[in-house]
Amino acid sequence: MQDNSIKSTCSYCGVGCGLLIKKDSKNKVSVEGDPDHPVNKGMLCSKGRNLHYVVNDTSDRLLYPQMRWSKSHPNLDRVDWDTALERAAHVFKSIIKQHGPDSVGFYVSGQCLTEEYYIANKLVKGFLGTNNIDTNSRLCMSSAVVGYKKTFGEDSVPIAYADIELADCFLITGANPAYCHPILFRRIEAHKEKNPDVKTIAVDPRRTDTAAYADLHLQLLPGTDIILYNAIGRRLLEQGLVDKDFIDNHTEGFAQYRAQVMQLSLKEAAKQCGVPVADIKKAADIIGISKGFISMWAMGLNQSVVGTNKNFALLNLSLITGQVGKPGSGPFSLTGQPNAMGGREVGGMANLLAVHKDLMNENHRREVAHFWGVNEISGKPGYTATQMFEALETGRLKAVWIICTNPSVSLPDVRKVDKALQNAKFVVVQDISKRSDTLQYADLILPAAGWLEKEGTMTNSERRISHLPKVVEAPGEARPDVEILCDFAQKMGFRGFDYYNTSEIYQEYAAMTKGTNIDISYLNYDRLKNEGTFQWPVNTYRHTGTPRLFEDKKFYTPSKKAVFNIPSTLYNRSIKPDAEYPFVLTTGRVRDQWHTMTKTGKVSRLKTHYPTPVLEIHPVDAVKLKIREGTICEVASENGNVRVKAKLTDTIRQGVVFLPMHWGKKLASDLNRTNNLTQNMVDPQSKEPDFKFTAVRVEKY
Ligand code: SF4
């Protein structure tokens, strides 16, 4: 198959598996894992293996632009592209003229290709004159971003997947890679099979498949992560299982760290976390004697009102053990989306500028403005994801352009999101699929080209950039997102958007990276096509990429030292359960579904594993509530309610219930939307919402 097959990258999770695509005479594609790809070595998970169905079945695709001429007009009319984008430009100009540039915003996605993300940011921050552009990566990685920036001086994942095979201890916390990053997990399993002394420790309130596989499962009470990591830190210090040389010569802030971890005895910490003291000691001892210690985490840490504090506490364990910048060691955030990292590189958040530059830094704003040939970039931070929808609800934001994401299912407190979208003066939804719930609020629907229907690049969780070629034509009149955005920019009268192809866009961005920590100025489409994937930085001619950062122990902070950041609190700040709402709801993904199921939901074989949303509840709790397997339950929070069948399982702690996040109104019903329940509470630093701790009531319906 390899001879005439085309190399690409999976469009789902941040693992970034390499694929070989073949196309038949009828333009139908087939998909195989690329045996030569450094990430997956030919393996694919269930989602990746079934990607061809998503491309070949175009029955759900949006095929032409549609427009509602006024709010009183009930129907969307088919229009041509010129009419659609001229109207969009007319409405945006008129709203900006009347209410100023901060009255419009863009909400984009970690599935956008880097070139699309770059153009959207250039358009909004450089030319529309507002920083109101944020991404659904805000819901995913922004707490980890703050953790990396404050610890290492830059949003930089220090590690490579190749370190997995060099490690002998994995602390997997707030993540279920067996379901959500399966190929990465397969690599850990294979490594452990060959090296039985390798240990995995899982930290999770649920006994997930990852936790069941682990040598040690710390089934902590939700929200007690900081206390647990500090207790592990205390034990490491007390046992002398720390790297004194690294602490003394390459870090700052250790004294404050030591003072904080000594605040709680192990006994007290164990009581507060709900895990035995012996298990905390065991975890610390495994970590402390390991030669290569990798911590892996995902949404269990990030999606919390104390998400950045959780990140700090975990990152500090890598610092006291000196397990950074050496083979088989380092902290490793697991990205949920295929290009969340590429998006951050080009400034895809309301508080960032391209090339990881800082919006609040006047010099950085001046440099970026100069590069784009505009007078200035506003210093006012834009609305973050949840702020954008709050602003729509209150009328401060009048128009929103939503690209490749489905906020009507995925944001917290979705009924408020619905109201916000109803209240907006103008909503543009640019998407590939009719299955998006958000379409019902659109005044303008723009059909976009999907995966394999356009060209561009992505960056996976280990900083690996890959090139994705166009393989098939998009159906109907669907167009690549960059073309749509560039056409819109030109209709707005902006210069600097007349690119010949996406390679030119990439080159413009790559030139901007020159001399920075994420320098890819020596990486171009030709090298990506001919030589394969590269991990940034790639900063000299013939440079082959950088698998591991900080091998010289020089960090990107002003002092060149890594920083112990001290959590501002040990305790969770989510609203606690009480007599009315006695359970803690935690939400997450299931193995074969992805996001709001606009793609995975159309593949019938992916529905068999977890066909409908169910409430996971411990049998002891269920008995008290007279709930049996399959009983329809009403779950209610202060915000709303959900009605689903119960699934009794002792894999979850008593007092905790779990709901999957994928199902929306279109696929099920309003009463299956898990985010009816979640609260719009965010971490004060990262502005990432808390999806992991909502006080709820459960009743038999
Ligand atoms: Fe795709 Fe992630 Fe599965 Fe790899 S692990 S095939 S990137 S979904």
UniProtKB/TrEMBL annotation:
Catalytic reaction annotation: 2 Fe(II)-[cytochrome] + nitrate + 2 H(+) = 2 Fe(III)-[cytochrome] + nitrite + H2O
Entry cofactors: FAD; [4Fe-4S] cluster; Mo-bis(molybdopterin guanine dinucleotide)
Keyword Electron transport among UniProt keywords: yes
Family the UniProt entry places it in: Belongs to the prokaryotic molybdopterin-containing oxidoreductase family. NasA/NapA/NarB subfamily.
Domain 4Fe-4S Mo/W bis-MGD-type: 3-59
Provenance organism: Leeuwenhoekiella palythoae
Any GO BP: cellular respiration
Role according to the record: Catalytic subunit of the periplasmic nitrate reductase complex NapAB. Receives electrons from NapB and catalyzes the reduction of nitrate to nitrite.
Protein name per Swiss-Prot or TrEMBL: nitrate reductase (cytochrome)
Known EC number: 1.9.6.1
GO MF terms, alphabetically ordered: 4 iron, 4 sulfur cluster binding; metal ion binding; molybdopterin cofactor binding; nitrate reductase (cytochrome) activity
A GO cellular-component term linked to this record: membrane
Record's keyword terms, sorted: 4Fe-4S, Electron transport, FAD, Flavoprotein, Iron, Iron-sulfur, Metal-binding, Molybdenum, Nitrate assimilation, Oxidoreductase, Periplasm, Signal, Transport
